[in-house]
């Protein structure tokens, strides 16, 4: 029972272009959403988050969009840089609970 | 600031051997602690979480167990490893969000 899905296991983008990573969830009770970035042999690091009261949150080159009706969130990276090459995980939770559910990850490769 | 340590960084173990992975947290008291596993082709799977000493909740029935003997120490164990236990094991503590340690790469041969 996958509550969080990242349907694209990999994505290649040219340097300077936009990267769009997608994430779908099934439970409308989730109200806080996060993106993590992971390099090989390292732990994931937090990138950006959004709560369900918003539909967009920006931090520099990174923007997260939330579509609650579609139960869909996306991460936009503009412009993409080679250093952005990593695996990106989306995560969801319900406020006040212990449990963060992570997606399967999307491997982004930014080509120089 | 808080720091999370895991060791060993890499481990190769034969099938049927025991396992002990350790996680310690510095800079915070009474943290909520988690064990996750990243297996090939899969996401980050929550294995165990702990809200205090001796308090462990299991998320997935499996060949593994966890213990929390001290406030800032979390241990993942197995009596007999299976090939399917191979993966990247991550310890995390819960601040405003999960903060992950550097991970342990376990290969069961």
Can you put this structure into words, describing what you see?
The complex is a heterodimer of chains A (112) and B (109). Helices cover 0% and strands 54% of the residues of chain A. Chain A is mainly β and 112 residues long. In chain A, strands 2, 4, 5, 9, 10 and 11 form a six-stranded mixed β-sheet that branches. The N and C termini of chain A lie far apart (38 Å). Helix content of chain B is 0%, strand content 60%. In chain B, the strands form two sheets. In chain B, strands 2, 4, 5, 6, 9, 10 and 11 form a seven-stranded mixed β-sheet that branches. Chain B has a four-stranded antiparallel β-sheet with strand order 1-3-8-7, with no helix packed on it. The radius of gyration of chain B is 13 Å and the shape is globular. The chains are: A mainly beta (112), B mainly beta (109). At the A-B interface, strand 5 and strand 10 of A face strand 4, strand 5, strand 9 and strand 10 of B.
Key attributes of the depicted protein:
heterodimer, A: 112 residues, mainly beta, 6-stranded mixed β-sheet, 5-stranded antiparallel β-sheet, B: 109 residues, 4-stranded antiparallel β-sheet, 0% helix, globular
DSSP E strands of chain B, number: 11
Overall 3D form of chain A:
globular
Main sheet summary of chain B = 7 strands, mixed
Helix content range of chain B? under 10%
Largest sheet of chain A: 6 strands, mixed
The chain-level mean pLDDT of chain A equals 95
Structure class of chain A: mainly beta
Distance between the termini of chain A: 38 Å
- Name the helix and strand elements of chain B from N-terminus to C-terminus, one letter apiece: EEEEEEEEEEE
In whole angstroms, the N-to-C terminal distance of chain B is 38 Å
Percentage of residues assigned to helices of chain A: under 10%
């Amino acid at each position: 029972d996958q509550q969080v899905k990242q349907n694209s296991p990999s994505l290649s983008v040219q340097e300077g272009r936009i990267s769009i990573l997608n994430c779908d969830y099934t439970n409308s009770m989730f109200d806080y959403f996060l993106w993590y970035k992971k390099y090989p042999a390292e732990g994931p690091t937090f990138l950006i988050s959004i709560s369900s009261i918003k539909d967009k949150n920006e931090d520099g080159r990174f923007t997260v969009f939330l579509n609650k009706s579609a139960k869909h969130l996306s991460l936009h990276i503009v412009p993409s840089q080679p250093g952005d090459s990593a695996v990106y995980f989306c995560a969801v939770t319900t406020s006040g609970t212990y449990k963060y559910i992570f997606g399967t990850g999307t491997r982004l490769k930014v080509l120089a | 600031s808080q720091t999370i340590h895991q060791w060993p960084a890499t481990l190769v173990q034969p099938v049927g051997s025991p396992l002990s992975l350790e996680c310690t947290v510095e800079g915070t008291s009474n943290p909520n602690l988690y064990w996750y596993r990243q297996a090939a082709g899969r996401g980050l799977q929550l294995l165990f979480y702990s809200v205090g000493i001796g308090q462990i909740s299991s998320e997935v029935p499996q060949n593994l167990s966890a213990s929390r003997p001290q406030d800032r120490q979390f241990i993942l164990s197995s009596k007999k490893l299976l090939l399917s236990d191979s993966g990247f094991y991550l310890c995390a503590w819960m601040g405003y969000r999960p903060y992950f340690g550097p991970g342990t790469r376990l290969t069961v041969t």
